[in-house]
Design brief:
By secondary structure, this protein is α/β, with parallel strands linked by helices. Helices cover about 40% and strands about 15% of the residues. The N and C termini lie far apart (about 70 Å).
Length: about 775
Amino acid sequence: MASVSDLRERLRRPLLVELRSGCRDTTVVGGLEKLIATVGKPFGDVKALISGYSELEPAERANRVEGALALLVEEPKAGPTAHARPAASRLDAATLEQAIDRPLLDLGAQAAKKLSAVGIRTYRDLLFHMPRRYEDRRALPHFGTLEDDTQVTVAGLVIGRKASRSRRGIALLRAFLEDSRGDRLSAVWFNQPWLEKQLFPGQRMIVTGKVKRRGRQVELAVQHMEIDDDSESLSTGRIVAIYPSTQGLSQAYLRRSAHRLLTALDTLPDHLPRTVLARQGLTSLDRALRDIHFPASETALQAATRRLKFDEFLFLELRVLLNRDADVVGKRIPVDQAELSEFENSLPFSFTAAQRRVLAEILEDMAGGRQMARLLQGDVGSGKTAVAAAAVFAAARRGYQAALMAPTEILARQHYLNLRDYLYPLGISCELLLGSMTSGERGTAKARIGSGEAALAVGTHALIQDGLHFSRLGLAVIDEEHRFGVEQRRKLLQDAPHVLVMSATPIPRSLALTYYGDLDLSIIDELPPGRKPVTTRLFNAAKRSEVYHQVTDEIRKGRQAFLVTPLVEDSEALEEIVSTTRMFEDLKQRLPADCRIAMLHGRMSGAEKDEVMERFRRHEFDLLVATTVIEVGVDIPNATLMVIENAERFGLAQLHQLRGRVGRGEHASSCILVAGDRSRNTQKRLEAIVRSNDGFVIAEKDLELRGPGELRGTRQSGLPDLILGDLVGDGDLIEESRALAKQMLEADPHLGASWARRLKEELQRRTRAVGFRQVI
Ligand code: ADP
Ligand code: MG
């Protein structure tokens, strides 16, 4: 007697064929219903679905067959396979208008769970589930034309399969595919025996992998496969979207779901008025969403991408502008010019023109009635700290306290020592507060800050932790803002002090405004005179031993050196340690025995890192092998050589930042970039660093050198609003959307007019979605 799973198979295959042949009920002699009557006994629910089949419209037949196939999936644990009924399969336009923000209907629990794992809960989520990339499958090659050792995507019909084991015991699974010319190919999977259950003769498959030709035999080592059993042919013969997905949620399923939804959807209303679209040269939202999922051409895809990116930036800019205009009343801290001269006169140098300009901007803010929120941006060593000290001084003279928050203890300590040098002679007392201090020390510091005796408190996030009260906080300076969470920043802002954020990250002006959103911008674009620029040289990995000679030389002169290894991938913390550790061990072998080498990486605790750094500063080590954890950092005037291994793996701005770790003392300093490959592109990028010492020039160059990538660049904004948009690559769109946002708000500051109704709704929705407080 046939087992249930045999019966299941005997049902499934004809159903698949029926679906593919357009549901004309010609697959089985006597009709599908007859077949089910004979072999469908164990599957009551399938029987119910198919009942009355011959009387149904083809579209409804397709629904039923898909439903039946979904019920017949052997292992429900595998989640929605290509056969499961797609999300949105039971929709019509009328219900969708109201249902778009409701949870998806008609899904099995497994499908719902999988979809929600990639962020899809409602129809709108599905609509806005943006493809990660695209594959051009308009003309897939015939098997006969495949060249050995190339990476290809092909489609074919499964005509057989075979499971076996290699001599070494590796499970091999082969599917024999036939293309439309009758040529054959064998697709091979290693160690994925469970796939056997998903492959059936008669299925159409799309496979991507590496070609191995053995005489007339063609083999393909499969990297990616899709089972293509949809009647709409969504997965071949076109530019195909590849979505962010998860185990068990197939691409074909996602495509089909999106397709169903778009088919059911009437023209989607646009939140931008038609006149605006025309003026900006933007495609409609409806067109854009259809084309982003199923582009008819590259041009259509480009237009769709542009429109959707434009929206992302527009809503981001609107949010930023609306937030900014929500003025917070600030403390008035007027500055007396005579007093300011007193500060300048106490300095061992005079301010550069750039320092003067930004200081004037800061002091003007502090004197006004609105809370300052300003970003002070300047290259390493451009004199930001000195400017901040002047602002602290100005506040202190009016009886206000200031706080400076740094991302690490060692940086906090360094700031404390610097600021104390500036301020103590002028009678301004400073206090240091660190988490690692004893509770006694902390208590004393807190008391002096609380009573107002200390005019400046310097510390880490310990400053915003429990139990610290300022008596009259007027100014908060935050160093390297990106290391602090938004929440931490807000906490320090409870008293609405003026806020100055210092950053050495050179972001071009147009981007800084968007990236830092609600902050005004002051830029120090000039270095103090007499700086010895760091000489930068480019070496090939083959010349590494020469590099080590230089390191030894420098150490022999009594100087210190850094050697930085790249972090392979953000997530690959282990590799990071391995490469740092390997380099560390290697250097111990290669450098003279009396060179004292230490190691620093991201997996060490904050205290461990601080200790290594502190000992390096005291010259207990000659060479520090480190990852980019030293990027933001401590001044070590005796460190004069920076070696960066695999320099091509770093962004230009980051290389510049790393280079800024040396050249901080009286000695001439240099930086050696070791290129791990010889490609033209690497050469070109790294030469930009060799040629320029100006962070802004380098940041612009970085922008320019980034190619368009494949069909879309990688995302890297760090802003939750941006899914398609890229802060670095989309400068023009940012400018355009900002200009439009400004115009709109000038015309209608609260977006209350009727033309703005949809726009405002969309803004509120997106603002909620990214977890920002409501702006209007
Ligand atoms: P940043 O915080 O931007 O890295 P700092 O304020 O720490 O820069 O300044 C770096 C060094 O340059 C310090 O030693 C500081 O005393 C010195 N410096 C700052 N401004 C000037 C100036 N106008 N002329 C000369 N030296 C300066
Ligand atoms: Mg500094």
